[in-house]
Amino acid sequence: MGGRRDCAGPDLVFVTETALKGFAQYGGTMNVFAVEYTYSSQTSLVRDEHRPAHRSWLLAQEGEGHVLSAGAYADGTGALLVLLGESEEAISELLEQDPFAIEGGIAGVKITKWKPVIGAFVDKA
Fold it and tell me: How confident is the model over 16-43, as pLDDT tens digits?
Protein backbone atom coordinates (compact mmCIF):
# COMPACT_ATOMS: atom_id res chain seq x y z
CA MET A 1 0.00 0.00 0.00
CA GLY A 2 0.97 3.55 -0.51
CA GLY A 3 3.79 4.43 -2.84
CA ARG A 4 4.19 8.07 -3.75
CA ARG A 5 3.45 9.27 -7.25
CA ASP A 6 5.70 11.68 -9.05
CA CYS A 7 5.44 15.04 -7.31
CA ALA A 8 6.14 17.07 -10.44
CA GLY A 9 2.58 17.20 -11.79
CA PRO A 10 -0.22 19.51 -10.64
CA ASP A 11 -2.28 16.58 -9.34
CA LEU A 12 -0.12 15.60 -6.35
CA VAL A 13 -1.70 12.64 -4.59
CA PHE A 14 0.00 10.38 -2.12
CA VAL A 15 -0.59 7.99 0.72
CA THR A 16 2.58 6.54 2.16
CA GLU A 17 3.57 3.99 4.71
CA THR A 18 5.32 6.76 6.65
CA ALA A 19 2.03 8.62 7.11
CA LEU A 20 0.26 5.47 8.16
CA LYS A 21 3.02 4.66 10.65
CA GLY A 22 2.90 8.24 11.92
CA PHE A 23 -0.53 7.51 13.26
CA ALA A 24 0.88 4.79 15.50
CA GLN A 25 3.40 7.17 17.07
CA TYR A 26 0.49 9.05 18.61
CA GLY A 27 -0.94 5.91 20.16
CA GLY A 28 -3.95 5.94 17.88
CA THR A 29 -5.42 9.00 19.62
CA MET A 30 -5.22 11.34 16.67
CA ASN A 31 -8.27 12.40 14.71
CA VAL A 32 -8.66 12.38 10.95
CA PHE A 33 -9.56 15.69 9.30
CA ALA A 34 -10.63 16.43 5.75
CA VAL A 35 -9.31 19.82 4.74
CA GLU A 36 -10.64 21.52 1.66
CA TYR A 37 -8.65 24.35 0.13
CA THR A 38 -10.43 26.57 -2.35
CA TYR A 39 -8.40 28.51 -4.88
CA SER A 40 -9.09 31.72 -6.73
CA SER A 41 -8.05 32.19 -10.34
CA GLN A 42 -6.60 35.56 -9.28
CA THR A 43 -3.94 33.82 -7.18
CA SER A 44 -2.87 31.15 -9.66
CA LEU A 45 0.49 32.85 -10.29
CA VAL A 46 1.16 32.89 -6.54
CA ARG A 47 0.47 29.15 -6.35
CA ASP A 48 2.58 28.47 -9.43
CA GLU A 49 5.51 30.33 -7.87
CA HIS A 50 5.22 28.71 -4.44
CA ARG A 51 4.13 25.19 -5.47
CA PRO A 52 7.60 23.65 -4.94
CA ALA A 53 7.76 25.03 -1.38
CA HIS A 54 4.14 23.96 -0.75
CA ARG A 55 4.89 20.42 -1.88
CA SER A 56 8.09 20.27 0.15
CA TRP A 57 6.08 21.38 3.18
CA LEU A 58 3.43 18.71 2.50
CA LEU A 59 6.11 16.04 2.19
CA ALA A 60 7.69 17.16 5.46
CA GLN A 61 4.29 16.96 7.16
CA GLU A 62 3.79 13.51 5.67
CA GLY A 63 7.11 12.50 7.19
CA GLU A 64 5.93 13.79 10.56
CA GLY A 65 2.79 11.66 10.28
CA HIS A 66 0.32 14.52 9.76
CA VAL A 67 -0.52 14.06 6.07
CA LEU A 68 -2.31 10.88 5.02
CA SER A 69 -3.12 12.08 1.51
CA ALA A 70 -3.21 15.32 -0.44
CA GLY A 71 -4.01 16.41 -3.95
CA ALA A 72 -5.38 19.18 -6.12
CA TYR A 73 -8.77 18.92 -7.75
CA ALA A 74 -8.49 18.17 -11.45
CA ASP A 75 -10.36 21.37 -12.34
CA GLY A 76 -7.88 23.54 -10.40
CA THR A 77 -10.48 25.01 -8.04
CA GLY A 78 -8.87 23.70 -4.88
CA ALA A 79 -7.39 20.71 -3.12
CA LEU A 80 -8.24 18.05 -0.58
CA LEU A 81 -5.91 17.13 2.25
CA VAL A 82 -6.51 14.25 4.65
CA LEU A 83 -4.64 15.01 7.86
CA LEU A 84 -4.10 13.58 11.33
CA GLY A 85 -4.24 15.90 14.30
CA GLU A 86 -5.29 16.24 17.89
CA SER A 87 -7.90 18.92 17.24
CA GLU A 88 -9.27 21.31 14.65
CA GLU A 89 -7.23 24.06 16.30
CA ALA A 90 -4.03 22.02 15.91
CA ILE A 91 -4.82 21.40 12.23
CA SER A 92 -5.53 25.10 11.71
CA GLU A 93 -2.18 26.03 13.29
CA LEU A 94 -0.42 23.47 11.10
CA LEU A 95 -2.06 24.82 7.93
CA GLU A 96 -0.92 28.36 8.76
CA GLN A 97 2.62 27.10 8.05
CA ASP A 98 1.77 26.06 4.48
CA PRO A 99 3.64 28.28 2.01
CA PHE A 100 0.41 28.64 0.01
CA ALA A 101 -1.26 30.10 3.12
CA ILE A 102 1.72 32.31 3.98
CA GLU A 103 1.86 33.74 0.45
CA GLY A 104 -1.90 34.26 0.05
CA GLY A 105 -2.53 31.47 -2.45
CA ILE A 106 -5.58 30.00 -0.70
CA ALA A 107 -9.00 31.68 -0.99
CA GLY A 108 -10.69 29.51 1.63
CA VAL A 109 -10.12 26.63 4.02
CA LYS A 110 -12.69 24.23 5.42
CA ILE A 111 -11.57 21.84 8.16
CA THR A 112 -13.90 18.97 9.02
CA LYS A 113 -13.32 16.17 11.49
CA TRP A 114 -13.86 13.01 9.47
CA LYS A 115 -14.68 9.46 10.50
CA PRO A 116 -13.92 7.12 7.61
CA VAL A 117 -15.93 3.89 7.73
CA ILE A 118 -14.68 2.17 4.56
CA GLY A 119 -11.29 2.20 2.89
CA ALA A 120 -7.66 2.93 3.58
CA PHE A 121 -8.19 5.29 6.51
CA VAL A 122 -10.87 3.40 8.44
CA ASP A 123 -8.38 2.26 11.09
CA LYS A 124 -7.23 5.86 11.63
CA ALA A 125 -10.51 7.18 13.01
Answer: 454 445 545 545 578 999 999 999 999 9
Written in H, E and C, the secondary structure of 52-115 is HHHHHHHHHHHHCCCEEEEEECCCCCEEEEEEEECCHHHHHHHHCCCHHHHCCCCCEEEEEEEC
Contact criterion met (CB below 8 Å) for 125 and 31: yes
**pTM for the full model?**
0.77
The string of pLDDT tens digits covering residues 71-98 is 999 999 999 999 999 999 999 999 999 9
Closest to 105 (Cα-Cα) out of 47, 52, 49: 47
Q: How far is CA 101 from the centre of its chain?
A: 12
